[in-house]
Every structure is written in structure tokens, then in C-alpha cells.
Amino acid sequence: MIQFIHAADLHLDSPFKGLRRIPKELLSTIKQATFDALTKIVDEAISHQVDFLLISGDIYDVEDRSIKAQVVLKRELERLIPHNIHVFIIHGNHDYQTSQQDHLALPENTHVFPNTVETIETTTKTGKRVAITGFSYDKKWIEERKISEYPTRHPQVDYHIGLLHGYAEGQQTDHARYAPFSFNELRQKQYDYWALGHIHKFQQLASDPLIYYSGNPQGRHRKEEGEKGCLLVELNEPNKQVTFLPTAQVIWTNIEVDLTEKTTLNSIFEAVKEAVSQDENTFSLITLHLTVSNDLPSSVIKKLEQLDFYEALQLYSEQSFHYIVESKVSVQAGENEVVSLKKVFPTAWETAIEEMKKSKAFNIETDELYNSYVHSKYLNPRDDRYRNEIVERAMNLLLQDLGDKEGAEYED
């Protein structure tokens, strides 16, 4: 039997997004969360006395990795040396390899794969021979099928594992499509396990062979909601077991509250307080989705947009930290009510919305923002999901500015 931990997409020292409502005194705690997740991974490796630790790319958030992130990684991996736990790392599109002159050397128990596909062999404490194959990115964009360079299973080993940071064709994802591969290509290699990185959501792609994305160990914005962690893998033919191990110290949570039957600020406050109290996480960053009636007075809706409404909720969270970092208030129109702009200009309104949701029109309008500003590299990729979200937000702002309350979504 062999036992190892599969982790990926640590994004050490990554900036958290959407933290306008977090008190400044807690920001340092939250920004430490990616490092705490790494510590938890190493703790789990020691606790389970695994044979080795695999990290499938994007250890750092950017290629110009901070000295703090390098020191923390080095220190944590050194903790594994007394336990004879080896570490095997590939770099991904965020932390692709460049000159080593400004990088700290990693400890002796750590092997970093080069930018060409390489297979190394290791022997576990129980004498099992394991082959591990992988490669590191040497540039941000890897569009070629690197999987074609992976060798088939080595016949002389007990287990063969593949490390790959890339995109599985046919999967719905918001992430860019780097180093594409198909399930059949992975199966043809006849490996026992594929440790994938790049997709930030834990998911099993196949059971024969075992193919997993571990997801990232710490969510960094509201789209990376829910528990995050790493995987404990046990291979003991014919038995195979993969266990999800939570590592995130901070959980991003979406909470939906139907307030259409509530008519006063007090009843709304009590309903939201009750919904938030149901969240059992120790530290949650919450996005609230509130649906209110079209009959609710505008004065109450304005209260829901004010910061002190959500700060008051924190006073009731004595045993845990629940912070509302974003709120979306949707006004539910009556059955026979329509948005007046749609009523006056129905064809033009729908045509304009659908046209702007197309990539060509959207890119024309946003090219200056994406191509002319130094901070444009931090913007989300202009994929379908992001494009639709921005158009919907613009539509709601337009409705509010023109005084069309019906159908508009109120956002803080």
C-alpha cells in the first residue's frame, strides 16, 4: 500500500477579492488564510504519516513570487523532513518557472519537475516502487497537448502517478483552457492515479483510473465558495480510497433569503439574522441574496444597502465570525408587472442586451480597460460567465438610474 496527499492551487499570498465590509483589524487574519491552509496540509501529511506529498501547480499566485511566500513554503516543507516525507511539485500557469536567481532553494526532500516531461522513481518506507511523471510550466500559456509527451506506465514499478496542471476537455469551467487533455488520453497511459491542478473545485473525473482535481485549499473570493481542501489517497490493490481533507480557515458562503412576505425592517432583520445564524462555519465571508417584495417601501430597501445593517448582524455572532461582504437585493415584481423600459422599447431593449452579451461587442467596449491599464492583468478573463454578470449588473444600474424599480436588482 502507498499513501499520499494530493494538493494543488495553493496561490500563496494571493489577494482576497471583495472585502470592502471587513474590519481592518481582521484583514491580516484573512490574508494569512492561504498560508494557514498550507500549514494544515503539512499537518495532515504528518498526522497520516504519508509516503509523499504531491502539489499539482500554482503554488504561488504570480510568477514574481513574494519572499514571504517562498519562506513559508520552504519552512513548511522542511517540517516533513524528520518524518521522511518527500514532496513532488509542478509549477502551473500562475507560478511558471523562470530564472532561479531570485528564488529561494527548496529543502532536500523536495523535487520540482522541469519544463519538459520527466519521470522519476521513488521507494516508499514499505519498499513499494512508485513512478511519478509531470512537468512544470515555463510560460504563462501552454496550449499544446503536453499529455502526448507522457510515457505509458513503467512496467517495473508498483504504482505510477501522473501530475498535470491543465484543462479536461468537455468540462464546464470558468478557468482558461491550459494544457488540454482528454479522459481517453489519461487512460491510455495506464497510470494508477492522476493528480490534477488548475480547476479550483474538488471533483472526481474518473474512477478507473482514479482522476481527481483536488481543488484549491483556500477560497479567495465569492465564486470559490464552500469547503476547500486536499486529498488523502490510499492505493492498495485492489482497494483504492480517496478522502477529502478540509483545510480552509475562511469559508466563502452564499445565503439566499426570501423576504417577499416581510413588510417591515424589523421582520427583515430577524429573518436575515436567523438565516445567517444557520451557517455553522467558524469563519464565514457571506454573500447575501435577498429577495424582497415590489411593495416594500424604498426607505426600507435603502436601509438594506447601508453598511450598519450588516454590522449589526455581527453583534449576534458571538461564537463565530460571520461577515457579510456583499449583498444583492432583488425586487420581485408582481405577476402582471413589467419593467417600463421593456414595455416602451421591448425589441430594442432585448436586442441591446443580447448583443452586448456576445463576446465581440463586449470586447470592443472593454478593450481599452483590458489593454491599456497596468492593473488589467488582475481582471477576470472575459469568458461567458463574467460577460453575462457584467451585462446584468450594468442593466440593473441603468434601471435604477432611470427610476425603474420594477425588475431591478439593488446592489451595494
Question: Can you describe this structure?
Answer:
The chain has helices at about 25-30, 35-45, 65-80, 185-190, 265-275, 300-305, 305-315, 340-345, 345-355, 360-370, 385-400, and strands at about 1-5, 50-55, 85-90, 110, 120-125, 130-135, 160-165, 195, 205, 210-215, 230-235, 240-245, 250-260, 285-295, 320-330, 410. With about 400 residues, it is of the alpha/beta class. The protein folds into three domains: about 1-245, 4-Layer Sandwich (Purple Acid Phosphatase, chain A, domain 2); about 250-330, no CATH class; about 335-410, no CATH class. The protein is globular, with a radius of gyration of 24 Å. It starts with a strand and ends with a strand.
Can you describe this structure in just a few lines?
The chain is α/β, with parallel strands linked by helices. Helix content is 28%, strand content 25%.
Question: Radius of gyration from the CA trace?
Answer: 24 Å
Q: How many DSSP-defined strands?
A: 16
Unreliable stretches covering 5 or more consecutive residues: 342-346
Distance separating the two termini: 54 Å
* Helix share bin: 25-40%
- CATH superfamily membership of the largest domain, which one? Metallo-dependent phosphatases
**What oligomeric state best describes the polypeptide chains here?**
single chain
* Whole-number count of domains: 3
Mind describing the biggest β-sheet? 6 strands, mixed
**Helix and strand succession?**
EHHEHEEEEEHEEEEEEHEHHEHHHHE
Round the mean pLDDT to the nearest integer and report it.
Answer: 85
CATH topology of the largest domain: Purple Acid Phosphatase, chain A, domain 2
